[in-house]
Design a protein that fits this description.
The complex is a heterodimer of chains A (516) and B (228). Helix content of chain A is 61%, strand content 10%. Chain A is α/β, with parallel strands linked by helices and 516 residues long. In chain A, the strands form 2 sheets. A 6-stranded parallel sheet of chain A has the order 3-2-1-4-5-6, with helices on both faces. Classes of the chains: A alpha/beta (516), B alpha/beta (228). The interface between A and B is large, with 74 and 75 residues.
């Protein structure tokens, strides 16, 4: 009976949109790394922790008014709510119950209350005893009155801060990664401590040294010496004691050096990971991102051009030398293998990317990245560099939006040089952007005031701007070469013009001003 | 017949060779690498093997005598530099176009005697950038490419007594009548600088000047007849 009630309740929740909305919201605040509210919530919790801990410290020597009690209570209520929230969203009971019920119906067997309860309890207990949950509980429990003696455990609240800092987590991961090395060092240190303490106790503990009264004193002396602290409250008096001390000091030094080198090594290994995490979260905030695969000479020339024009881009290259160059230039980069699916997923699929440029010298790699992207997201524009004329066709078959075969373009320009060099210079100036005369496009947006005006009315002739072509609705299939100056422009048309950079800029500005 | 020497049957070298028709140009290819020479021969071009530092070879193919244009298209900047320097010492008037792979090498090449330099990486990057930044411009530029062959850019030398001799930029309606775009010109008196129409200067066209027009091939042909 109760089992049936639980099941029907689960179905009821599943059909409720409001319930789902609330749960999604809780998830956004508490666990969703990508949500916009979470950083604010995290900052708020960290603030509460620091505030209550400082109150505790101040309270030790001073007497505080009851106002502070209120702050404490508010903080704890927030912590409790937070814990309950996480308890709630940790797993999906409603879904599990429905699944269980469906299975039972299929099998034709009856539902059992015990099985359902077991399912719920196992999941929730798992959460309660997870390390993060224990930290949270330790931050809450000391406030409970009968446990008031445990007030000092409020310090555990500081642990809560770790939960919110990703880089600290990586830092601790360093230690777990080097478990073997640390274990070895630890055993070595223990061995040295007990051995020297035993020898010391045997030779000086029988009354030779008034400071060593027990075995504990000997161990205390050994640890103080091996750690190079050396208080000097217990010093060796016998010859044997002095020899042992010499070895212990030398050994202690070695252990410290080893430990330091292990930590630095592990940290530098992890630094690249920390940097990558940071980069990915940075990339996540950008929109209309351009991803450049390959930072060779072409990739670099392109990156420089994009940078000058204020576009956001990320570079991917696995070559150390190339990524160093990107680092020097201050560009966003990721040292990764482009043939790796994870790289493409993290960088291209999980971000707001609208264009990808493949500039590596390896056509097979370019093709594999192109296919990976097109298989999952067709609407990302992919521009591919072909390194071999036979491969241009293959890239087109693989649905590349644009294929660039640089050698052919260069050849076309170079051949122009055979005649008189005038044409070459004209092409070089315009196509390779060597003068302030530039090719540009003016897009007529729907609703702009210049819709219905003629080309001369827009003021292009006055500024000596030549309209080379007018693309009807922006399509090159439907274009008018050299349109008349009394031609009326329509919404969504694009004008491809040639003229002085500044004049074109002026025209563009005046058009945007007329925009209603 | 224009005599051309191409040093280095690289990817760029190959594309250039493909563009030069055999009836108009006499092309000789030289390469350091026997494999490239074999490939050029296979593609149907006349190619020879020779080391880059062999000056006799340059004289043999005719540099200093009847060669008009030299393309240095080897994949190695230092080879290109060496050939440029050797060829320039043999012939002061030779037209030399050299590939560069690093921006820093441009000045060096000019100093060695190259007339013009061009970088495949820059060209490729600019093309990619234009697709990203100005997609419509790149669409129109594609119409000008040799492959699509829809529009072309042409140079016209103004002869004496041509109807354009002595005409100012602003008075030019003749281009519009022939559905051509007047881009600019090179004034022999003012030296080697190209003057764009869009610079807004009202310049006078004289004979021996060279003008550049855009338009379809047939329109340009008709126009050439009219002005003479």
């Amino acid at each position: 009976m109760l089992a049936k009630l639980i099941i029907s309740f689960a179905y009821f929740l599943d059909s409720s949109k409001r319930y789902k909305r609330v749960k999604d919201f809780a998830f956004d605040i508490l666990e969703n790394e990508k949500s916009r509210i979470k950083p604010y919530f995290d900052a708020f919790i960290i603030f509460l922790v620091l505030l209550t801990v400082s109150i505790l410290i101040y309270d030790i020597a001073h007497h505080l008014s009851y106002h502070f009690e209120i702050i404490e209570n508010i903080a704890v209520s927030v912590f409790v709510l937070e814990w309950l929230g996480r308890f709630w969203i940790h797993d999906n009971i409603r879904y599990n119950i429905i699944k269980y019920h469906k299975k039972k119906v299929e099998d034709g067997t009856d539902v059992h209350l015990i099985e359902i309860l077991k399912m719920i309890i196992v999941q929730k207990v798992k959460y309660i005893f997870s390390p993060m949950s224990i930290i949270d509980l330790l931050a809450i429990l000391p406030t409970y009155r009968p446990l008031r003696i445990l007030r000092i455990f409020l310090i555990f609240r500081l642990l809560k801060i770790f939960r919110y800092t990703k880089s600290l987590n990586t830092f601790f991961k360093v230690f777990s990664d080097k478990k073997f090395e640390f274990n070895f060092l630890f055993i070595l240190a223990i061995f040295a401590v007990f051995m020297s303490a035993t020898i010391m106790y045997v030779f000086e503990g029988i009354g030779n040294n008034p400071n060593i009264k027990s075995y504990l004193d000997a161990i205390y002396w050994s640890i103080i010496t091996i750690s190079t602290v050396g208080y000097g409250d217990i010093t060796p008096v016998t010859f044997t004691g002095k020899v042992i001390t010499l070895f212990l000091v030398g050994g202690g030094f070695m252990i410290l050096v080893l430990a330091t080198s292990i930590v630095t090594n592990a940290l530098s290994d992890k630094m690249e990971m920390v940097r990558e995490n940071k980069l990915l979260s940075q990339a996540n905030k950008l929109s209309n991102l351009i991803v450049i695969f390959g930072f060779g000479r072409m990739g670099m020339a392109l990156a420089n051009e994009l940078n000058e024009n204020g576009k956001d881009f990320i570079i991917v290259d696995k070559n150390e030398e190339n990524t160093l160059k990107a680092k020097e230039l201050g560009y966003l980069y990721m040292k990764a293998d482009a043939s790796d699916y994870e790289t493409i997923k993290n960088l291209v699929f999980d971000n707001d990317v609208d264009k990808v440029v493949l500039t590596t010298e390896n056509d097979a790699l370019n093709l594999s990245v192109l296919l990976t992207i097109k298989a999952e997201k067709k609407d990302i524009v992919v521009i591919v560099r072909a390194n071999n004329d036979e491969n241009v066709k293959k890239f087109k078959i693989a649905k590349a939006d644009f294929v660039i075969f640089p050698y052919e373009t260069v050849a076309e320009v170079a051949v122009e040089y055979i005649g008189s060099s005038v044409k070459f210079d004209a092409i070089e100036n315009i196509i390779l952007k060597k003068s302030n005369i530039s090719l540009d496009e003016i897009n007529i947006l729907d609703g702009s005031n210049i819709v219905g005006k003629s080309i001369s009315e827009i003021g292009l002739n006055k500024m000596s701007i030549i309209v080379i072509a007018l693309l009807k609705h922006g399509s090159s299939r439907n274009f008018i070469f050299n349109p008349d100056s009394d031609y009326m422009v329509e919404a969504n048309d694009s004008l491809v013009v040639i003229g002085d950079e500044r004049n074109i800029e002026d025209i563009k500005k005046s058009i945007s001003r007329q925009f209603t | 017949m224009i005599n051309i020497v191409l040093f280095g049957y690289s990817k760029t070298g190959r594309e250039i060779a493909k563009l030069l028709s055999k009836d108009e140009y006499n092309l000789q290819i030289i390469d350091e690498n026997p494999l490239s020479v074999a490939k050029a021969n296979e593609d149907g071009f006349y190619a020879k093997h020779s080391a880059f530092n062999d000056d006799k070879m340059l004289e043999e193919v005719g540099v200093g005598k009847d060669i008009d244009v030299l393309f240095c298209t080897s994949t190695d900047d230092s080879f290109n530099l060496f050939i440029t320097l050797s060829a320039r010492s043999l012939d002061k008037d030779l037209k030399i176009l050299t590939l560069i792979y690093k921006k820093e090498d441009e000045k060096k090449m000019i100093l060695a005697g190259a007339n013009r330099t061009i970088s495949p990486y820059d060209v490729g990057a600019l093309k990619a950038f234009r697709i990203i930044d100005k997609p419509k411009v790149s669409k129109v530029l594609d119409l000008f490419s040799l492959q699509s062959n829809k529009l072309s850019m042409n140079e016209i030398v103004i002869r004496k007594n041509s109807i354009l001799d002595g005409v100012y930029f602003k008075d030019l309606n003749i281009f519009k009548e022939h559905n051509l775009i007047f881009l600019g010109m090179l004034d022999k008196e003012l030296g080697e600088k190209f003057i764009f129409f869009s610079e807004g200067i009202n310049h006078k066209i004289d004979f021996n000047d060279i003008i550049i027009v855009l338009g379809s091939k047939s329109d340009i042909k008709k126009f050439k007849k009219v002005i003479e």
